[in-house]
Fold each of these.
Amino acid sequence: MSHKNMSVVFTGVGGQGVILASDLLSEVALIHGVDVKKAEVHGMAQRGGSVISYVKFGEKVYSPIVEKKSADILCSFEPLEAIRYIDFLKEDGYAITNTVRNFPLTSIFGKIPYPENPYEILSKFTSKVYEIDALKIALELKVPNVVNVVLLGAISKLLPFKDEEWIQAIQKKVKAKFVDINKEAFRRGKEAIVF
Amino acid sequence: MAKEILSGNEAIARGAYEAGIAFASAYPGTPSTEILENISRYKEIYSEWSPNEKVAYEVAFGASLAGGRALAAMKHVGVNVAADPLMTSVYTGINAGMVLISADDPGMHSSQNEQDNRRFAYFAKMPCIEPSDSQEAKDFLKLAFEISEQFDTPVMLRVTTRVCHSKSVVELGERRESAYREYKKDFVKYCMLPSSARVRRVELEKRLSKLREYSNKSPLNRIELSNTEIGIITSGISYQHSKEAFPDASILKIGMSNPLPDELIREFAKKVKKLYVVEELEPYMEEQIRMMGIEVTGKEVIPGIGELTPDIVRNAILGKKVTYEIPKIPMRPPILCPGCPHRGFFTITSKLGLTVLGDIGCYTLGAYEPLSAIETCLCMGASVSQAVGFAKAYKGSKKNRIVAAIGDSTFIHSGITPLIDAVYNKANVVVCILDNETTAMTGHQEHPGTGRTLMGEDAPKLDLEALCKAIGVPHVRVANPNNLKETEKVLKEELAFDGPSVIIFRSPCVVRDRSVWKKPLIVINEKCAACGACFRIGCPAITKDKSGKAVVDPILCIGCGVCIQVCKSSGADKCKNVSIGYCSDICSQICRASALVEKEDL
């Protein structure tokens, strides 16, 4: 892989499995043999709130924080959260978002409604916006919680890691009895998107 | 040696293991919590959740005196609680190595303030060590124990959220059992009566000057000489941001920030043309460098509020103003979980128009719309003490409408003493202990009321009712907050009572205890009158469809039934029928299948 570091920003809603997704990506990078750092916050911010996790990898990574306008990929578990953090994406970077909406209470009571067409808004920032109904795939597998691995499968096509390395990471991070279903979720995510 | 990706907190735990420590204590608090959780996995180390940080510091200090290496971990504001023993423990010094871990939270991701505890180390005259990534977190902790023993002092390892919760690659080492150091009676050293404290006061200053010599020579502080146009003095996570922002600049990396290496700073200042100090929060190093007569640029360009990032550092030094446009979208603040037992309690306090003085825990989220139920949040235990003051001085229209809301873990931490005050001084307060049987906000840690210890052993369960009665509270009641009628009745009765009373609202945290989960609810669309009553309980599982009617998300809903109760009550005057019922069996089976749920995801 090139000497330039790559960075991925994961966003979503607390409880969706955002952090496990970024953990898995970090593990793959380690298995691949490059330097890697990731950052997020735990605690109060995670109770149903907006979540962001950064992963950076390459020859040598200093700050674990991804700078604004520098992420290669923004992978969002929820469309509104993709918009919230779109300024992290570099010019013409890839924005991949799950299509299932999660309406925050503020959109019901507040003055600002949930945007009608998130895709359109995201497209103003980059020409590379991709939507994926990861929940639909996960429900087909009868396990809604594998949304995160479906999304990883999708973005894996933009990353320099081999399938064997991904599988090794899944085996390391996921409980034994769920390894197969996660491998399948990964495969389905990969199939579901064409860049 | 093996390499692993560890968070700063996991690395600190590993460092504690490798340093051969015998004892570790803490009270949970973000961003420090995972340190003890990870240490508890090493059976070679005795570890405990203490009732609060003062106790955590004191028990660790006792272990150090007894001869075993010990650490106490806490969040920055926890150090305030532990300040009393801390400020004098630097006088006595230690026996076996003693390290205080202060986990600061710049940016206040999960805290009520963003105090910079390097000031605390300076104030206490204790060494302060600042790692900048996970590898250093592990290695510096080991070194901190050596410094502690070499100089006979407790040492502060100061980390921040971005060190604690960032993960990076760490090379693991082996555990080296630390030698047991026999305790020897030494009145002048350990018993701080004024006569001996005066002796130790002088020792403290002598030690500090020896530590400064050490700091000048220590590998913790190092010059990375490169292009000399710009020189940056920095520490902790700011080092990483500075390296990223200015890869070619010369850097003086400070790993020991108290005492600062004065000679090294002078040497570095001479070598570079323009000198900057890049540090988060306070101008802690900057002020000391200025006092040395060295010209330096710091807080006039580097923000003193919130976290730094590589782009903030770069733009600040280059004098660039960059703004990023994001479309206006609804905020998504953290909220009480679906099925949270606090929701029923707040639904009633809002209905009754009570002034709820709040505390520190998940229930503080009851301050957000639409519940808007909590009115104050200051520090651990303050709800009870503030209520006493409020009750004594308040002359407004809401008299007999004031309650304190405090969680079980917070009550044990700091609520008992003010409750004694309420009884002793006959304050007319209603203290509501929201007992969800865990320390929920920080990720479900055990406490004296849960009957389990950090190391997984059974323990005597603190009986809150008996405790309150023993204090002398005349009325001690227990109620189920998910039952709105009962909650309303009990609150009204106790508000009418003249004197202090305690109501324990007991219902387990639903994230921890899935046995209370019921089938998800479903809204019968044709019956829903779109009255909005169920929206006002602020449940994230309930949203609105295009016609303004309620929709329940079956994946989020756990069937607590609070919405059914408000639906029923609104039905009396608005809609004729209750429109919320239980979802079918089949869909709940799908909803509940789980493959990848881990605590970190919560």
Amino acid sequence: MVNALSSNLLARGFLALVLLYLYAPIMVIVLFSFTTSPRLSMPIEGLTLAWYKNAFANPLITKALTNSLILAAIAAIGAGLMGAAFAFGVMKLAQPRLRQALLAASLLPAVVPLLVIGISLAVLFHGLGLPQGLRNTAIGHVLVSLPFVVLTMNARLETFDFTTLEAARDLGASSFQTFRDITFPQIRPSIVGAALLAAALSLDEFVVTWFNIGNEQSVPVLVWGLMRRGVDPSINALASMLLFLLVCLVIGSNFIGRRNT
Amino acid sequence: MTATTGTARRWGEAGVVARPLLPASLFYVVFFAVPMLALFVLSFWRANGFVLIPDLTFDNYEKIATSSLYRVLIIRTITVGFITAAIVVPLAFAVSYVMRFVFETRGQVILQLILLSLFSGYLVRIYAWRTILGKQGLLNSTLQWLGLIDRPLEFLIYSNFAIVITLTGLLLPLAVLPIYSAMSNISRDYLEAARDLGAPAHTLIRTILVPMALPGLRTAFAFAFLLAAGDFVTPTLVGGTQSLLIGNVIADQFRGIGSNWPLGAALAFVTIAIVLALYFLVMRLIRWVTTW
């Protein structure tokens, strides 16, 4: 009894430490986006919103934000639709071995370092004579989001009742009708959830972007530029806003994706 | 006759089943498989300034094999990747165990929190570690303020230590994902039965938990090792001049002054080959240890 209690406390403490390790960086950035001292050090002297004003005074921010939102929308729609269709197709396959193999193959881009994906795409586009910019970057974002969309869709579809489709077909519905009236309404929340996740991944993507965006801007590219120039407290404000958007998207994705299941 | 229509129909059905697979498959071929192939082909080309010259030369590979700089960088990269994976995988294993077997229902909430951190700010979190570990950063200034140290601890930043700390934080959530999902297939009954029969904790881990979670552990190790070895942002922001990794050099070959794409491509493939070879070696070793 005492033993179980102490091991429970130990487990609790361990998880708390791990969560602190994961979240300390984020908390630090948000905290220091509000402090007056430009240095990130203790003790804290006072609080201010000046760095947020400063961040918006950056002439590049409007452009970066617009581009990032365009990229996120393309990744959400492109990866969301293709990934959902793929996960659905894999589920319907009869042979479990083929199913496993296709699923594993679709997750490959998540195991290859983003650096390698980024440079290989740059090589492809160079070979095709397509100049660097938003178009190339958008394709990269769809590619790196796809594995995560497939993975989440696959998890959600495991509870999907395929017998309703057979019932619809037996009652004479065409395959298009079955999809439109039975399948799609049921999996729509999952698709939207997965698409929001793709948007979050795109909004946060830096490495593939860096090798394909050329002279264009995106929020992470702008943040990178500021980071390399030294300690600028408006980075914290910019980063906090990015974090806020990301957290909203991921929580939204989870919330919507779980509806009806 | 009936046989042919039967086959035709089966193919027709296969076509219908395959249709939703097509767009993503095509996309993967054109923008993942073909670019990898193109990168490989490019590694045998030459560069003259920004002009790429088709060729079939092994010069790039020879340059890598004979250069002590690249050798040092590759060895350092593999060491950092390996140490990171060696910390991340057991840590993720312990986290998954606690979530699965100690806090069954609340485990789900904690899992969501861990996954949320995976999607919250890649660049931002690396930068945050620089501000935490920096010479005048949060940790040093707090310790000095509290009077625990009178001079900043210098090893905290611009070091391999900083790189490993940062990479571990980035990769832990990704490693928890496969290990936790493998563990959710392990029944609590096995553990209780073994415990009732008097098996000590380390026997439980070696004979039940590790073998049954092995597919997840393997994936987690692959994630951690491959992605740590391929990261160049972390060494750029928190590494020092003595802790540049091969990813920095590869990145510079593609986006930097005096860039050389074919050489960068060859460097990427040499690194991938070494990392994959080591990965399979470690997997053999783990299988050997667990079946033993």
Amino acid sequence: MKKVKHLPFIIGILSCLILASCSSGKNGSNNVEGKTAGEITIWGWDVAADTLELATEKFNERYPDIKVKVENFNSDDVYEKLTVGLAARGSGLPDVLLMEDERIPSYTNQFPKGFVNLSKLGYDKYEERFSPSKVKSVKNDKGEFIAAPWDVGPAGVFYRVDYFEEAGVDPDSIKTWEDYIEAGKKIKKITGTKLLPIDISKYDGVFHMMLQQQGVSYFNEKGEAAITSDEAIRAMSVIRDLYKNDLVANIDGWDGIVTATVNGKVASVPYGVWYTGTIKDQAPDQKGKWDVFYLPKFKEGGTRYANVGGSSLLIPSSTNNKEAAYSFVEFFTTDVETQMLGFKKYGLFPSLLKTYDDPFFNEESDYFNNSKIFQMFAESVPEVPPITITKDFARASRTVSNAQAAVLLEGESVERELDQAEEKLENEIK
Amino acid sequence: MRNQYSLLNKIVIYSFLLIGVIISIGPFYWMFIGATHPSGEIFNIPPQLLPGDYLVENFISLQESLGMLKIIWNSLFIALTFTVLSTLISAAAGYAFAKFQFKGRDKIFFMLLLTIMIPYQVTLIPLFELMVSLEWLNTYSAVILPNLAFPFGIYLMRQNMKSIPDSLIEAARIDGAGEFRIFFTIVLATMRPALAAVAIFLFMFQWNNFIWPLVILNSSEMFTLPVALSSLIGMARVDYGQLMLGATLSTLPIMIFFLILQKQFISGILGGSVKE
């Protein structure tokens, strides 16, 4: 009886909720006729936000009438605010926005009209200035620029020079993943240190690097799950062999990787170029003890190059100063000096190929064993194979991590786990 | 023998308690230690267990990177204003629900309780749009106002108000006191412990509130502590010294607030659970 008495109220509340969520309003297409003056706001995070801030000075020399305001958030917070803003038809969004490349497909898929199509504003003319893999990651499936390319994360293996020397391993001799495992065994035997850190049940980064160096990712050209390829089986088998030889330190998350790196728990870390900054900041006393080599190759083929991370700039369609926003994005991503600013000061590795002619890339880094590490990374950027990232990347990443955990921790077979993961993923993204 | 046994007993109990203390104090201590060291030293092995001398430097860099003083002011202003207004509303509404007879009283109360069960994700976007249409984006009002009628606070006050004897209120009425006078001078005076409990609860809620201020505040000079602290966590680089200091600064007020009012807090939470 009691329940029936309250029923009208429950229905009342539910209908309020439904009404609230379906409330339709006019589309936020109050685009004012563009003008290259006014104020634009940019959302970014971390050192990227600092770089954007620094860049405003030179930008204002060219566009004195555009005032730029940069707001610094945590990256996850930017996505949270962006999702709410886009769901509220663009209310409260900035004029320019920083986004990690791997997130772009899921946002453009969920909010197809959420961002300004940069190709329509003439960005196509800059295509040749960036590497093919970066260009691919900022275009939609029609081949139009949705984001303007900024930084990239060419991959390499950071290693401890002293451990390698102690174990008598010549890093130049490591050409294939088999060599890497052999080197790891030697180092383990002599120094007692494991070879690399992986957060086994959560981090698929090493696996993904191995796929990209062979020119594939988790999806084929049509956007279907493709994690049972020969390339994937090869990659997972190498990770399994690393683990079987007790060379993998199973750590927890980002902090775990940093801790293992700083405390000498691992002899090497395969990661993106931006990790140089992390090592330098968190282990200033290990100067000269670190160096880098390219990812080992698969003897079956592929390259030694991959990419980890990278971000780009987007313009939300709700901006009421599209011209000014585009002026900034165009200037920021194609001006060599500005790109070098972020790189020199904060280590944000530019994707603008012309920057690599800067003498700074030729300098030896005294922290990294006097090697020309940045030149090395720069040379790899144009060679990184372009891959297809879709809206389901995050989901694929989780599924693969689970498969990795099953293979390593529970000793399941590589083929079977990848098969199951692909099936699961296909069902989820249908 | 008996004495010895109880001594042994005591040792066991105290060592258990000691372990409990270490487990609960440990993280706070670690946070405080971290706040006094430069970032890199936090990962050292063996870990630093004694305070370092980097506290001032950390504070200066916090002030530079976030404008810490303004952030603390924002947080204090928002949390205190909210606490005062919302406690008053909770008390008034709780009083009405407990002591007045009006049509649909229990149904309204029931609906109020139902709103506790709506997850914030559901209301986030409509509420956000409402704020946009009021042009309240990036203002204190947008952070403070939407939660003012806080269902749990009202509920707690109602339960406590029920224990006020009707005869007391009736006596006041007979003596010619107006309703407002009864509420402010008699009801609130007898409800001090409950008010303290609700105030602490509301203060903590607003002080720690994260998602809503994050969504509604757009410029760094308006941020509250949790939002500002979150922006310290970078993609590849985190200054742990600054972060730990920020975390210390954001937990201190709650600890102090709680320690001062804990007696009231505990008796207030229990109040209303036993009815005479």
